[in-house]
Write a structure and sequence with these properties.
By secondary structure, this protein is α+β, with helices and mostly antiparallel strands. 38% of the residues lie in helices and 15% in strands. Helix 2 packs antiparallel against helix 3 and helix 3 runs antiparallel to helix 4. The longest helix has 14 residues. The two termini are 24 Å apart.
């Protein structure tokens, strides 16, 4: 998994702190065999109400330290989980125009975290994004029978 590049900055209109994507990024989901493109300049609020894993936040550094004791990794790679989830919340679509339901959006976020070594956190973050997030993905349905 390649590292996503972003920096902390205020939203240009609201002044709220978050993250701005530094370059285009394409996420490929092996599970769903689809892509989601993210574009340079995209603003994200990160993990709303939770610690942004891999940020410079003190709690994030503590979580990283514990994670590296359980599942050692080469450094702390910045993951795309909240960017991809926010992109699904914004438009509710894969790149090919297929609608994304809330279950899928949360599962993709969990998959990204799992692959990056955040195995413990992938489960509560899945539930939090499923129950309290979703945006346009939730408007497409909580869970579809056919994908």
């Amino acid at each position: 998994m390649s590292e996503i590049k972003y920096h902390k900055a205020k939203h240009p209109e609201t002044g709220k702190w978050g993250y701005i994507l530094d370059e285009d990024y394409v996420y490929y989901s092996k599970r769903y065999n689809r892509t989601k493109s993210l574009y340079k300049g995209m603003w994200s609020d990160g993990a709303t109400g939770f610690v942004d894993l891999n940020s410079d936040n003190f709690l994030a550094r503590i979580f990283s330290w514990f994670r590296n004791r359980i599942h050692h990794m080469e450094g702390n790679v910045k993951t795309a989980w909240f960017y991809v989830h926010d992109a699904f919340c914004n438009d509710g679509l894969w790149d090919d125009g297929t609608p994304v339901d809330n279950w899928t959006a949360s599962t993709v976020a969990g998959d990204i975290l799992w692959k990056a070594g955040w195995r413990f956190w992938s489960v509560p973050i899945w539930w939090a994004t499923y129950l309290f997030g979703g945006g346009e993905a939730k408007k497409n349905g909580w869970r579809r029978v056919v994908i």
